[in-house]
Design goal:
The complex is a heterodimer of chains A (about 120) and B (about 110). By secondary structure, chain A is mostly beta strands. Helices cover about 0% and strands about 45% of the residues of chain A. Chain A has one domain: Immunoglobulin-like. In chain A, the strands form 2 sheets. In chain A, strands 2, 4, 5, 6, 9, 10 and 11 form a 7-stranded mixed β-sheet that branches. Chain A has a 4-stranded antiparallel β-sheet with strand order 1-3-8-7, with no helix packed on it. Chain A is globular and about 40 Å long. Chain B has about 110 residues and is mainly β. Chain B has a single domain, classed as Immunoglobulin-like (Sandwich). In chain B, about 0% of the residues lie in helices and about 55% in strands. In chain B, a hairpin with a 4-residue loop joins strand 7 and strand 8. Chain B is globular, with a radius of gyration of 13 Å. The N and C termini of chain B lie far apart (about 40 Å). The chains are: A mainly beta (about 120), B mainly beta (about 110). Chains A and B meet through strand 4, strand 5, strand 9 and strand 10 of A and strand 4, strand 5 and strand 10 of B.
Chain lengths: ~120, ~110
């Protein structure tokens, strides 16, 4: 079946622009995660949804970052007034179960954001 | 404070030999450790996991060992194949399901 898809795959923004990154999780998956991966680093947690509820946003680096999942399926990560330090690959992952299970997270290919 | 550490940024192994990738952790609170494999321009792909109550889990050519007293885990790949060449991340998971990743080890398997 179809995996997690993300769009766009590549985004170049001028400093100060707003960007919106989209994630289409695997159909029926309850949980959805966003991670940020800087060059040479491992993915770092940003935020977590269970259906439409945002249960953890402790990883969002500033109030310029905002995520939503209004209908419990597609999610959008929005970054306002982008800065050069926002340049990274943004990964989305989904999983079928809620917390407590041994389920794994299935990752999309990521969106590479470059802020000039 | 980095909770999961992969101290070897790269590893080179001959085809057919064993690859051993290591991971150290500081936080004793976790449910699972997981290993993910990542090819360039793709997202990480789940490989194998181990729960906190076990010390070994095996799946085909892949075995993960957990040493809780040393706060250390390792992934063994035997025999190594050229298609195993990728970046490997260990990650731990607890509480809200979020994963805490290490910085990764790039494995190269040469003929």
């Amino acid at each position: 079946g179809a995996g997690v898809s993300q769009s766009p795959r590549y985004k170049v923004a001028k400093r100060g622009q707003d960007v919106a990154l989209r994630c289409d999780p695997i159909s029926g998956h309850v949980s959805l995660f966003w991670y940020q991966q800087a060059l040479g680093q491992g993915p770092e947690f940003l935020t977590y949804f269970q259906n439409e509820a945002q249960l953890d946003k402790s990883g969002l680096p500033s109030d310029r970052f905002f995520a939503e999942r209004p209908e419990g399926s597609v999610s959008t990560l929005k970054i306002q007034r982008t800065q050069q330090e926002d340049s990274a690959v943004y990964l989305c992952a989904s999983s079928p179960l809620t917390s407590g299970g041994a389920d794994t997270q299935y990752f999309g290919p990521g969106t590479r954001l470059t802020v000039l | 404070d980095q909770q999961v550490k992969q101290n070897s940024p790269s590893l080179s192994v001959q085809e057919g030999r064993i690859s051993i990738l290591n991971c150290d952790y500081t936080n004793s609170m976790f449910d699972y450790f997981l290993w993910y494999k990542k090819y360039p321009a793709e997202g990480p792909t789940f490989l194998i996991s181990i729960s906190s109550i076990k010390d070994k889990n095996e799946d085909g050519r892949f075995t993960v060992f957990l040493n809780k007293s040393a706060k250390h885990l390792s992934l063994h790949i035997v025999p190594s194949q050229p298609g195993d060449s990728a970046v490997y991340f260990c990650a731990h998971r607890w509480a809200s399901d979020k994963l805490i990743f290490g910085t990764g080890t790039r494995l190269q398997v040469f003929p």
